[in-house]
Specification:
The chain has 414 residues and is an alpha+beta fold. The chain has 3 domains: 92 residues, RNA polymerase II/Efflux pump adaptor protein, barrel-sandwich hybrid domain (OB fold (Dihydrolipoamide Acetyltransferase, E2P), Beta Barrel), CATH 2.40.50.100; 63 residues, E3-binding domain (Dihydrolipoamide Transferase, Irregular), CATH 4.10.320.10; 204 residues, 2-Layer Sandwich (Chloramphenicol Acetyltransferase), CATH 3.30.559. The radius of gyration is 26 Å and the shape is globular. The termini are far apart.
Amino acid sequence: MATEVKVPALGESVTEATIGEWLKQPGDAVKTDEPIASLETDKVAVEVPSPVSGVMGAHKVAVGDTVEVGAVIATIENAVAAGETTAIEPREHAPAIDRELEALPKDGEAADASATLSPSVRRAVLEHGVDPTAIKGTGKDGRLTKEDVLAAAAAKKAAPAPSVSQPAPSPAPSPAPAAAGERRTERVKMTRLRQTIARRLKEAQQEAALLTTFNECDMSAVIAAREHYKDLFAKKHGIKLGFMSFFAKASVLALKDIPAVNARIEGDEIVYHDFVDISIAVSAPGGLVVPVVRDCDKKSFAQIEQEIADYGQKARDGTLTMEDMKGGTFTISNGGVFGSMLSTPIINPPQSAVLGLHRIDDRPVARDGQVVIRPMMYLALSYDHRLIDGREAVTALKIIKEAIEDPMRMLIDL
């Protein structure tokens, strides 16, 4: 008996996705709720679970194909309902590579997480002839990813061959190397996430009246506070004290004082919010994503830091959900972690403003008639001039600057 595998509901307003990777190949044994495919949507990657236990049947679509919600993408043969058991017969006349796949470590057989291989990783190991135990995994809990295997295979090819006393067997024919100075091009289809990022950023530029105001911020007080309390903070809350929570709480002060910066345009109306949900821009393997830390005005520094850390890990693992990125009234983007000195960030529609953070540099500044060296950061606030006046934008950024330079303001709501 065959059971159809269909594209699950992907979230509000999301009607289609792209097949990113097949996690199970025809003939592989599958269990109920075990992921068999990865879908790329406009915002996140979504795994498709098997509805039943059985043997993976035919793929109805290929990697890169666009599929709609409810579309049949594969079948499960010898299907068994949840809670039942059955013996799954191996395929007759299986190719040699499949027999070798069975010999490699499976989930739970290895002594450590780095040796736990998914089907796609095991297949890549065999195809490229690398030793999985010699590769350091970069996936969750140290697991090997397909990219780890490909990188190891490339390094293996680049390494010089060891000298031997006996002549080596003749290698198999390979493509001729590129001639010196030869110029090549490569075409790679954009992922759905990258396409969505490109479209939304262009729409923001075309629709909003974008303007950016700048200021500079002396980070001395925050750096001193962080250095003084970081050990106690980590001991009590189990999380590191970073700079982002300071900027989130400073932004709360500004957004409460200047409500327009926390609002959005909807048709011919302005929608104001009495809460502060801050989208934190996070770099993920597939592109920039913006999970939302909700109710920042009600949360502590520790709660904000914990949520940011959790989102960062989920972004690296590719496990962010639609709900994680839904909503948001204001965005903070930290280009400083990549070394950016100054930038003009683009708003995240339908929001009306975004705060850009940059790297901290020791610079000479004037204090009390004296030139001193201080750790300085440039701040940028991009905003939709249709809704936010220049005075409001400058005032909001000034409030953030003053709160960072004097953190006591965040404690007494000044």
